[in-house]
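[Automated response] Your request has been received and processed.

Submitted sequence:
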Amino acid sequence: MPMACSSPDYFLPHIARMEGYVPGEQPRQRQLVKLNTNENPYPPSPLVLERLRAACGQQLRRYPDSQSVGVRSRLADLFQIPPEQILVGNGSDELLNVALRCFAGAGDRVVVPDPTYPYYEKLIQLQDAVQVRVAFPEDFSMPPDLPVAGARVTVIANPNSPSGTLLATESLARLAAETEGVLIIDEAYVDFAAGGAVHLAKDSANVVVCRTMSKSFSLAGMRIGFCFGPPALIAGMGKVKEHYNLSMLSQVAAEAALDDIANMRANADRIRRTRTDLTA
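Generated structure:
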């Protein structure tokens, strides 16, 4: 159980009140079947491993590309969206953190459906913002209480974690049009579902869509995330991110994974088929 700060006078009051997030345990015993953090059971693309081996040399003494240009250009080609509408981060958690730092401050209302990914609560607490939970209906469709008036940010995981349910893109588009603040759509698991909301990030003024390479790309250990949004929001978030936020090796891995997108899609399809078999 995490401990509260024992010397609160040194900390901002809202930090002293917090308890740290507890990540999923990483047991070392090989006999365990590890399911607690939803890691991909299949290895990453062989091209990733090949390029990582080749990169472990003189390049390690240099700082990485602060703008992750190679990764962003590949994402731009894949999703047909301009590079200036893409930001790359040290996992999608960093990008969610950056977004909350940009768009919410002390006392601001940040809306999340309930239940959902618990890490959102910690990110909201870091900003001394106010978390507003809106309950999903029994079928996990769009909560009827959305949008919430006056909310600076609304965060929706789609597919949702932990329910695995998927909201229709049309309902997300309506929410984006009706909400007063920024709508963040966390698509960590979208490659195991259908659709996606990248087009909303491309065409709307207030939508940021976050994705990760931890799940479908089998790269959880490399910490690679990316997000899409209107140029003004992405440029603003770019001012807040760490300047060398993605290591050189992570960029090499991301570029290779995107160069072999067929490998990711094949593994995601295998997982979908296994899910169907298990739930039949």
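Summary generated for your ticket: Strands lie at 86-89, 109-114, 130-135, 153-157, 182-186, 207-212, 225-228. Residues 66-265 form a domain with the Aspartate Aminotransferase; domain 2 fold (CATH 3.40.640.10).
If you did not submit this request, please reply to this message.
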